[in-house]
TrEMBL record:
Domain Oxidoreductase molybdopterin-binding, chain residue ranges per copy: 283-436
Highest taxon in the source lineage: Bacteria
Organism: Actinomycetospora chlora
Record protein name field: Molybdopterin-dependent oxidoreductase
Pfam annotation, one family: Oxidored_molyb
UniProt xrefs under SUPFAM superfamilies: E set domains, Oxidoreductase molybdopterin-binding domain
Positions of transmembrane segments: 21-43, 79-98, 105-127, 133-150, 209-231
Gene3D superfamilies: 2.60.40.650, Oxidoreductase, molybdopterin-binding domain
Length: 557
């Protein structure tokens, strides 16, 4: 039997070609992920290996990387993470295949290690329950089975090819040689067609390998599709659609005329729900139904309370416009939106359970394990803190926390806006450290007074002469008293403010400035009703929100 010149090991001549080896690796990993998704889809969507590992990655991400990801990808940070994981997995799978051309062992080890990473990630998830182990374990077993099965077929094919190797059907890689798409007829057309036996065997082993590849690919695709479908039809959309008419509560919003300068380029005063910014750690939106929903309020209280969705809905509901802001919003950033929320006043519920005097904060937990810590003092000073069930006249969108979330005007979302809220524990600051606090962010985080220039855009050009500046300012729960702009470090000039609808919302402004031809630097600053002007010194978003004046460079032509 001819031994390949680049293969000095007699007796180990069987070597899977590079392409089938890579295919085995890719399909082994694909089958693992698909079966993991399928089992997760049936049992517990969050236990999908990809989501579990991605979730663990997010939890372990250092602050600088998280900031970089948000700065680079914005609200597409999760998509970027999933794409990054896909690239890494493809590379690992291909390398596992290439490293296993003589023996299935290295690839098997890689599959087992990946499986163990998924098991460990699932275990580390904050909302872990033992059933969450089944998806990664099923993935491990399926991945291993497909890998070993395909690798065996590939070895047989390689062995058969080696047998007819002298006839030109060698198993070596080389330019122009097609390892993947070949089939029996092309082999029989070769000059060595008289060597029926081995060539026939080669054809059969190739067919079997091909069948295995197609079968594994089809099976993985089907399992993945069913798993995805199960995960996204977890019932939340249907449950949301089934929420009946929302009560018509008297609100302050009969007339919003004059509340914005949208015609001049500011956002509309109310943010359309589909444009409302979204920030959370959930790689896959948690699927809760109103039927399964339960909220526990406990801890430092006189009476524990367990509420169903209907229990909540049957309580007194209030409506309030609230501008929500993310602490990760850079000066001039877009992580701020305004909506009308409908919900149960938090103070009603706190009165119902009877808060003990030693309680300092509300530890809220989402169904996915995410937590916030909300200072009690901030929610009992009369502001419209609530457990919201609706936003802009519709049940909360699933990605904004359906069926119930907390909203507190004047506090950044990470200390107040717990979505998919299922547990509230009255506790002390010492006893409880929230998700982001564990990662270096503050325990107390009132929204800082800020302002933003929306028109003109930085880097843009404007016509020289009189030009319009417009934007928004916010000082939640204090109210914006004044907005000033200046050009090129000159004198501050007052901007015109839009109608004041509520101190808990942002306020639009506009003004005209005279700009001579050339480069100009425009700045804005807001002053709240307490007389405090927003801090000039730039600071990072961590630990409790960015400061500094939004500055926009434009060219007047
Ligand atoms: N369950 C859950 N709730 C969460 C978060 C999260 O990651 N998970 N992020 C918080 C943060 S940081 C912000 S700014 C707000 C954003 O709410 P939105 O996505 O509805 O705009 O949700 C808060 N509530
Ligand atoms: Mo946030």
């Amino acid at each position: 039997m001819p031994i390949a010149t680049d293969d000095p090991t007699p007796g180990c001549a069987t070597r899977v070609d590079a392409r089938p080896a890579v295919l085995c690796g890719l399909l082994g990993v694909a089958a693992a992920l698909a079966v993991g998704d399928l089992v997760a889809g049936v049992l517990s969507p969050a236990s999908s290996p990809v989501l579990a590992v991605g979730g663990q990655f997010i939890r372990l991400t250092p602050e600088w990387l998280k900031a970089l990801a948000i700065a680079t990808f914005g609200v597409y940070d999760k998509l970027a993470l999933l794409l990054g994981m896909a690239v890494v997995l493809v590379l690992v799978a291909a390398a596992a295949g290439l490293g296993s051309r003589r023996s299935a062992a290295p690839g098997a080890l890689v599959v087992v290690l990946l499986g163990l990473v998924a098991v460990a990630s699932a275990t580390a998830a904050p909302a872990f329950s033992p059933v969450d182990l089944l998806a990664p374990l099923a993935a491990l077993v399926a991945g291993l089975a497909v890998w070993l099965g395909l690798h065996r077929l590939a070895m047989r094919r390689a062995a058969a090819a080696a047998t007819v190797g002298g006839s030109g059907a060698s198993s070596h890689d080389g330019p122009g040689r097609d390892d993947g798409g070949d089939d029996a007829p092309s082999v029989t057309e070769q000059p060595t067609v008289h060597r029926k036996g081995p060539v026939g065997t080669l054809g059969a082993t190739r067919r079997r390998f091909l069948l295995g590849v197609v079968g594994a690919a089809a099976g993985a695709a089907a399992a993945a599709a069913v798993g995805r479908w199960l995960a996204v039809t977890g019932g939340a959309d249907a449950s949301r659609a089934a929420v009946g008419a929302l009560p018509d509560v008297p609100g302050p919003l009969a007339d919003l005329a004059g509340a914005d300068f949208a015609a001049q380029g500011t956002p509309t005063w109310l943010t359309p729900t589909n444009a409302f910014y979204r920030i959370d750690t959930a790689l896959q939106v948690p699927q809760l139904t109103t039927r399964d929903y339960a909220l526990r309020i406990h801890g430092l209280v006189d009476r524990q309370l367990r509420l169903s969705y209907d229990d909540l809905r049957s309580r007194r509901l209030v409506e309030a416009p609230i501008t929500m802001t993310c602490v990760s919003n850079e000066v001039g950033g877009a992580l701020i939106s305004n909506a009308v929320f409908l919900g149960v006043p938090l103070t009603d519920l706190l009165a119902e359970v009877g808060v003990r005097p030693e309680a300092q904060q509300i530890a809220s937990t989402s169904v996915d394990g995410f937590t916030t810590g909300t200072p009690i003092a901030a929610v009992t000073d009369g502001r419209a803190a609530m457990l919201a069930v609706a936003m802009n006249g519709e049940p909360l969108p699933v990605e904004h926390g359906f069926p119930v979330r907390m909203v507190v005007p004047g506090l950044y979302g990470f200390v107040s806006g717990c979505k998919w809220l299922t547990d509230m524990e009255l506790t002390t600051f010492d006893e409880f450290t929230s998700y982001w606090q564990q990662r270096g962010w503050a325990a107390q985080a009132p929204v800082k007074t800020q302002s933003r220039i929306d028109v003109p855009r930085s880097g843009g050009s404007v016509l020289a002469g009189r030009t319009t500046l417009a934007g928004v300012a916010w000082a939640q729960h204090t109210g914006v008293a004044r907005v000033e702009v200046r050009a090129d470090g000159g004198a501050w000039q007052d901007a015109e403010l839009a109608r004041d609808v509520s101190i808990d919302t942002w306020r639009m402004w506009r003004t005209d400035v005279d700009l001579s031809p050339g480069a100009h630097r425009l700045q804005v600053r807001a002053t709240d009703r307490g007389g405090d002007t927003q801090v000039a010194t730039p600071s990072l978003t961590i630990p409790d929100g960015a400061t500094g004046w939004h500055t926009v460079d434009v060219t007047a032509i």
